[in-house]
Amino acid sequence: MRPLPDALQDELRAALRQALRGVPPRGDVHDLLGRLGLHGLEIAPAAGGLGLGLSYGVVVAEELGRVAACDTYRSGCLAAETGPAAAAGVAAGARPPATAPPPAGGALVRARIRQAAYLVGLAAGAHDLAVRRSGERHQFGRPIAAFQATGFALAADLVRIEEVRLLTAYAAWLADRDAAGSPDSAAAQPRAWPPADGEPDLAAIQALAAAAEAATGVTRRALHLHGTYGLTGDAAIQHYYRLAGTEATRWGQPAALWRAAGHRRLASAPDTEHTTAVLAAAGKGER
Amino acid sequence: MDFGFDSHQSRLRARVRAVLATPGVRRAIDDLAAGAGEPDERPLYRAIGAAGVLAPDWPAEFGGLDGGPMSVAVVAEELSRAGVPDTLHINTVQIVGSVLRAIGTADQQRRWLPRFAGGERFACVLYTEPEAGSDLAALTTRAEPVPGGYRVSGTKIYSLKAALCDVALAAVRTGDPASRYDGITLVLIDLHAPGVRATRIPSLADEHFHRVDLDAVFVPESDVLGAPGAGWAALTTALAMERTGLDYALKAARWYDTARGGLTPGDAADSLADLGRHGASADAARLLAWAALARLEEDRFDPVFAAMAKLHTSESAAAVAEWGAALRGAATAPTTGPARCLESAWREAPGLTISAGVSEVMLELIAGSLSGSAR
Ligand SMILES: Cc1cc2nc3c(=O)[nH]c(=O)nc-3n(C[C@H](O)[C@H](O)[C@H](O)COP(=O)(O)OP(=O)(O)OC[C@H]3O[C@@H](n4cnc5c(N)ncnc54)[C@H](O)[C@@H]3O)c2cc1C
């Protein structure tokens, strides 16, 4: 158990952030990612890729969202899942087709997790802009961020972003673990409580639903903190707001995703020992 | 990122689970449920402590298992799953024990830690005062120097479990009353010493508070923790370390599981989306608590991240409780079954976003860390 980025994730994030600096909102980053050799990050080495898992793919998607890039990374990964020929093309830097049939099964699970990561990035990028702006802009003789009402809103959004980032990383880890197949020894180990050995399907659905709501909510608040300037053509923040609106529902509307998540929660079996403990404690008459 | 428990942690989980399944421990858990009023969990902790699993992150010489902070999560998860009430463990081992490990002398550690780990002695926390809550630096309890130690006078409130405990960790003022941060000192107070009086303060929740009046209580020099007057730094560190959110995350999971288990397919159809939302929020709570512990494990402890974990986990657990109560009708005060558990959760919930630092103080800490802001 080490729910912190590993060295490679840190390195990947730092390198991408550096390379993406100065990319304008809604900029085309296809060639830039090609030069970094990242189109094939998740693609199997046999098809010319790096064979790194979704746990690294979500780092890429989040950094792309952070600069509100119009990327081909997500669509490329999806296109590559249709077969080895397509995978080799994507890994070699070919642009994926602009439209593709909607994914299903494992491809949909992975597309949702990547999408969640991109939305986390959008929220984080918009939040950075709002922190900067509200620290610099003075009204009533002090920075806007110095008011509790604004500072608390920014703080609460930071927590929300971290929460969704972790849900997304967890979903990616589960998907990678499933793809790798679990070792025999795993079966002999006690099942954790609360159930930590979740299913990637549920984890992907809830990560995407939470990320979609975080992205729309955080970008709206971030724009709000910019004042009217935020609405104008010069302001980067309005691109985050727009992109959050269109990207939030790409693989399902949040309301439908939450219902789907609830459905899966009902289907999973309760931990009978825990239920017994609750019932035993609840037998107590007096309080 | 790795969200899987390693084989060492899984072995610890199996070991704790085996301890909790022994007849002596089971009987002690059942006895709690059978008794009236707020139960005395000490016999239960004595039974678990005898098996040596209460302080897995402590060195073996102090009754621990030489594990890291992550091992605390494994033990806490299993205690929660088996229905063991957490307050005595949190206060004694996780809070007072941690402070002793951080700033106690070798002699103080030898004196207390093995007894805490063994479930033989219990500790409570005396920080809050009637006029010093969130603003703890306003505390006024005085410690006057006398030959061989101090005489402590003042009033502490809202302490949980004080009536069951042997010793208290208290924050007192040894220095100039006019200064805020200078002159605060952490001491251990023998709760059986002359001059200590604990009075019960009834609470909305099942666990009651205590007011502890201290009237010229003698505290020998050997019970002063760290350098006199320099306790504020240790106190803020201790408070931050309480804020991994682990216990709140476990409450969220426990209550969520109970609410979910009690749903009939008919109720469920109406609340599928809520079931999804609260499930995600409870999962995120656990992930944040783990991430905070992992930072501790690598000596990269970050008080701002801890504030984030405390804020989310407590708010999440409170929201789950509110939801669970709405599903089951808290107002009817049921006496048995999952409804009783959820009704009790509903009365406990408001305290979660107050204890260990109110949500607004967490937001202040987080907001203050935002770069670019002039706060
Ligand atoms: C279940 C539980 C267990 C506890 N156990 C112990 C214990 O064992 N030992 C012990 O010493 N204490 C204990 N406490 C006390 C606890 O630490 C204090 O209650 C807490 O620090 C808050 O102080 P207060 O209650 O005086 O609230 P106050 O400080 O009076 O705050 C009241 C409200 O004011 C607002 N507020 C406060 N500060 C700010 C701010 N900076 N910005 C904006 N709004 C603000 C918030 O809405 C807050 O909820 C416990 C409390 C609870 C609920």
TrEMBL record, chain A:
Chain ranges of the Acyl-CoA dehydrogenase/oxidase N-terminal domain: 25-69
Residue span(s) of domain Acyl-CoA dehydrogenase/oxidase C-terminal: 107-244
InterPro entries cross-referenced by the UniProt entry: AcylCo_DH-like_C, AcylCo_DH/oxidase_C, AcylCoA_DH/ox_N, AcylCoA_DH/ox_N_sf, AcylCoA_DH/oxidase_NM_dom_sf
Cofactor(s) annotated in UniProt: FAD
Gene3D superfamilies: Acyl-CoA dehydrogenase/oxidase, N-terminal domain, Butyryl-CoA Dehydrogenase, subunit A, domain 3
Pfam families reported in the protein's UniProt record: Acyl-CoA_dh_1, Acyl-CoA_dh_N
Keywords: FAD, Flavoprotein
Top-level lineage group: Bacteria
Similarity-based family: Belongs to the acyl-CoA dehydrogenase family.
Database matches in PANTHER family: ACYL-COA DEHYDROGENASE, ISOVALERYL-COA DEHYDROGENASE, MITOCHONDRIAL-RELATED
UniProt name for this protein: Acyl-CoA dehydrogenase family protein
Source organism (scientific name): Phytohabitans maris
TrEMBL record, chain B:
Signal peptide (UniProt feature, chain positions): none
Cofactors (names): FAD
Domain spans labelled Acyl-CoA oxidase/dehydrogenase middle: 124-202
Residue ranges occupied by any Acyl-CoA dehydrogenase/oxidase C-terminal domain in the UniProt entry: 231-369
Lineage top rank: taxon: Bacteria
Name of one Pfam family that matches: Acyl-CoA_dh_M
Start and end residues of each Acyl-CoA dehydrogenase/oxidase N-terminal domain: 8-120
Keyword Aminoacyl-tRNA synthetase (UniProt): no
Keyword field contains Plastid: no
Keywords, in A-Z order: FAD, Flavoprotein, Oxidoreductase
PANTHER family xref list: ACYL-COA DEHYDROGENASE, ACYL-COA DEHYDROGENASE FADE34
Sequence similarity: Belongs to the acyl-CoA dehydrogenase family.
Protein known as: Acyl-CoA dehydrogenase family protein
Organism: Phytohabitans maris
